[in-house]
Amino acid sequence: MLVCLDPGHGGSDLGAISNGIYEKDITLKLAQKVKDNLTRKYVVDVLLTREKDEDVSLKDRADMANKAKANFFLSLHVNAGKGEGYEDYIYNSLSVTSKTAALREIVHSVLANFYAGYRCMDRGMKKANYYVLRETDMSAVLCENLFVDSAYDEKLLKDEAFIENLSRAYVEAIAMALNLSKKSSTLYAVQVGAYSSIIYASRVANDLKAKGYDAVIKEIPNL
Ligand SMILES: [Zn+2]
């Protein structure tokens, strides 16, 4: 499974700007965090259409995803124009597949829920004739994350912890939409004792339970 993440704008294309914050910086930071968190937790490959602050044309972005045969294309943007809140887009053509519509619904519901926790407005599921939605061969969704020029949204966009949490919401949305499997993780058990008497072992386990630990007794060979 290959996900292509597209941090909007970059290089000489600053995107939306307000009070010293640039859309191109937020989208890159967010995309990198989504990539890191997603690949750490799930069995998936992630391709970024840009890894740094550079010019990449819309054509190159779509070509990159098509050439790599990505399964899903997610374009990350920040809005401007004195509105507030979150919205996302799929291609506004009859050729848009029901699969794309279904994937977008999942992404939208996870993100709208996340944003509701910050009292940000849900501006809805929209359609548009955007280049990267039209020219990509796979299901593609474009997300507009808050407004750089609204005081309330701007405060969140400047907050590192918010961007980190937002990236985790995208990880959850992508994993759910694409039904990704979790990477198996190693667990480390802490043993507090080994006793030859079941009575003594039970007493220790009960003491631990009384202290709030989830203690279990296991028989192990006495080598
Ligand atoms: Zn943009």
What is the strand and helix layout of this fold?
Layout: E1 2-7, E2 17-18, E3 21-22, H1 23-41, E4 45-48, H2 58-67, E5 72-79, E6 86-91, H3 98-116, E7 122-128, H4 131-134, E8 139-147, H5 151-157, H6 160-178, H7 198-210
Helix pairs in contact: 1-6, 3-6
Zinc ion binds at residues 8-9, 15, 23, 77.
Structural commentary:
The protein is of the alpha/beta class and about 220 residues long. The chain has two domains: about 180 residues, Aminopeptidase (3-Layer(aba) Sandwich), CATH 3.40.630.40; about 40 residues, no CATH class. About 40% of the residues lie in helices and about 20% in strands. Strand 2 and strand 3 form a beta hairpin. The termini are far apart. The chain binds zinc ion.
Which key terms come to mind for this protein?
binds zinc ion; single chain; 7 helices; 8 strands; two-stranded antiparallel sheet; six-stranded mixed beta sheet; 41% helix; alpha/beta; Aminopeptidase; 20% strand; 223 residues
